[in-house]
Predict the 3D structure of the following.
Amino acid sequence: MLTLRDVDVAYGQAVALRGVSMSVPAGTTVSLVGSNGSGKTTLVHTVLGMLKPRAGTITIDSVSLAEVRASDMPELGVGLVPEGRRIFPHMTVADNLRMGAHHPATRAGFREGLAWVEELFPILATRRRQRAGTMSGGEQQMVALGRALVGRPKLLVLDEPSLGLAPVIVGQMFEVIERIAADGVTILIAEQNVHKALSISSYGYVLDTGSLVLEGPAQELVETPQVRTAYLGG
Amino acid sequence: MIRNARGRGTAGIVAAGLLLAALPAVSERTYVLTLGYQLLLWTTLAVSWNLFSGFANYPSFGHGMFFGIGVYTTSTMLTATSLPYGVAFLASFAVAGGVAVLLGLALFRSTRFRGDLFGLVTLVLAFVVATVVSNTSLLDGGTGVFVRAAAEGTLLDNSPARLYLTVLALATLTVVIAYLIATGRWGLGLTAIRDDEEVAESSGVNTYRVKVLTFGLSAGLAGLVGSPHAVFLGYVEVGSVFPLSIPLFVLMMAILGGTTTWFGPIIGAVLVTAAQQALIGQGQAEVSQIIIGMLLVVLILVCPNGLGGLLRRRPREEVTS
Amino acid sequence: MSPMQVAVLQTIVSGALLGTLFGTIALGVTVKWGLLGIADFFHVSLTLFGAYVTYSLVSVAGLHPLATLLVTVPSFFLLGMALQWIFVRLEVKLFTSLLVTFGLFVVAESVITLLWSADTLTLRPVLPEWLTAPVALPWPLQQVRVLPPDLLALVAAIVLIGTTTWALRATRLGRGLHAMHQDPGIAEVFGVRLTRTAVLVAGFAAGTAAVAGMVVALKMPLSPHLPLHWLGVVVVSSLLGGLGRPLGALIAAVFLMIVQNLWALFYSPSWAPVIAFSFLLLYLVLQPLLTGRGLRSLGGAA
Ligand SMILES: Nc1ncnc2c1ncn2[C@@H]1O[C@H](COP(=O)(O)OP(=O)(O)OP(=O)(O)O)[C@@H](O)[C@H]1O
Ligand SMILES: [Mg+2]
């Protein structure tokens, strides 16, 4: 589904990703873990076409990203839940969700997508007219997730969905992500919460200061000494 | 023997001023002196604007208004009172500076008044002041004021050489002040405000006081140079004292020259004034006004950080978000 | 009715109708400022430019006043798009845009003077009678004198501001525009074409300037320094109405012009221009005391 080959990304002179190669096969959930500043968000933004790689290739369903505008990502079937949610704060919940099916390619499926989202998050159906910026952090994360799902993406990219949420809410959020995966959506999840992320993934990559340092099936990765000491506190 | 660097710098600026003071001895021609007068007038305006608006990054559209307040303070005191010119001169500083201090005291209480909003409020106030002046018969009343006769026999006495020397003295004073601020602790405070006001406040800068006082000084200097300008004009009227082109040119001069240094606005003022004078020589005034205006617009569009910024332009970030 | 009552009524009606014209001019300013981040003083000059072009098309080329829109609206649309495209390409920031459009504003006065002279021009003598004969109004306004161009201003305001308000709230373009204003990066990955949207909106704004310019040409004598007198009311009503909200700007403009005209009736007309500014300063000072909502909480779909 998603393949990166030898991808380099830089902000001006500062190199943020170096020779990253990874793949997310269709129908699987893959995590990308790493500490603060390791480059997870940079990678996510690159996959979404918001940053142009300096070198290397990215393909989604064998379409090269080099030829795709960021504004055409929905057409490729990619949905994003950005770091820090980044919902549209002054718009209503209903309008935020509509923005998820803004692209002509996803517009037709909006009703169906909305029904699915409101089934996953029943609370959103009761808050349609609320300004999204006035919602609680957990509710905003639901809006962000809902916005990415109404377009019925084939590939869902989540950037730190657990950020700033209470442990109980994080648990619920990951349950929903598993349900989404069970519906056949391919998922790439960038997380610092290594344990949670790997527990719902089949495969994982570890990023450290811009390079991939470790990869493997999720279960095995949790057992490796590096991950245990570095991220799970022993 | 002047030992420290700031002392030497100040002495250098004063020496340059003294050198320029020799101009009337070299040429008595009114044209030459008037050209010199224009260059120094715009230099004073641009440098004094930059003191606050540039150093602290609070771009004001009100500098023309403070200048105009100075012009009208002098014209009123010369025509309506029999006080000596020196009093009118100092009053121009006090009134313009006082208005700015009052404005600053009110506006800077809230940090909302930055960027476009600060620019707008100062512009709006310029309209208000122009309306007040043209409706108050003591000041103008819409008919204009003849200053020439009243200025006869005073210190300036309508003499091009004396006007030139007065503005030269003011320009030197303004540049020295800008230099001392830029190289001293006060300047550090302004730079801190420019970079991040909250951080500045938490690192011990009394941002409110610094902003109010610097704004007042900046405006006062503009008012001060308005004083000889009232005599230079001879006939003072609202339309020619408060045109929008004055704040526009002042802003563009300072920005083009560079707002982070004390000398940047001098460069901008000299370049723009020279270009303007060269163009005015070529036929229609209207056409030259258009050309110079468009030139400035394009320059600002292409290098919003000044001509200096053009040289050390950083590579474009490859970020779309 | 006593003569005084008639005079007051007349003042209110004329003020309100003039306000609708300023509301139409403010439409472009408030949308561009609030949603594109471009503080466009030049829009006001563009309106006068539209008026002069209308003047020439009617008086020289002999076009029907309403038919001039077929020429002016598309060409202004293109002009607005071109300018915005430059702004987008050069990644112009809000303050730079303020400075640049302020510069263009000053230059425009000279350009208009150069092209049409500084003299006052008026279309009135060449207008057909249906555009110059007073309109008969129903009770209680039968003694109030209103001319067809005044009503045209009202119609233009209702049509343009009505459509824009609806489009901003309920259309895909409007939603995309709000999203782009609130978070361009995220809006883009959900399918908003940033450059295209900004350029289209700016083109539309310039198009409304052409319509307002046509009304101006029919309604009042033209002279190059008019924008200077309009700028205050237009900017103040944009701010008072809440940036990005054309309906708010219209209401504010109508209110300001009624107050200003009443002031001129009872006190000195020459002080009237200060009214709008006083309201703005009052609002800016009082605003923090009012609710948290205000100038900085721009945008908002509802
Ligand atoms: N816009 C930018 N300009 C310059 N450098 C940037 C920019 N964004 C990120 N960086 C740098 O790139 C590196 C990777 O940042 P990134 O945000 O991708 O990390 P991250 O893994 O997502 O971290 P976190 O877990 O804190 O979100 C960091 O060193 C960061 O400082
Ligand atoms: Mg991150």
User: Anything to note?
Assistant: The beta strands of chain B are 145-146, 235-236. Chain B touches chain A at residues 314-315, 317-321 (CB under 8 Å). Residues A 40-41, 83, 159-160 surround magnesium ion (ligand 2) (CB under 6 Å).
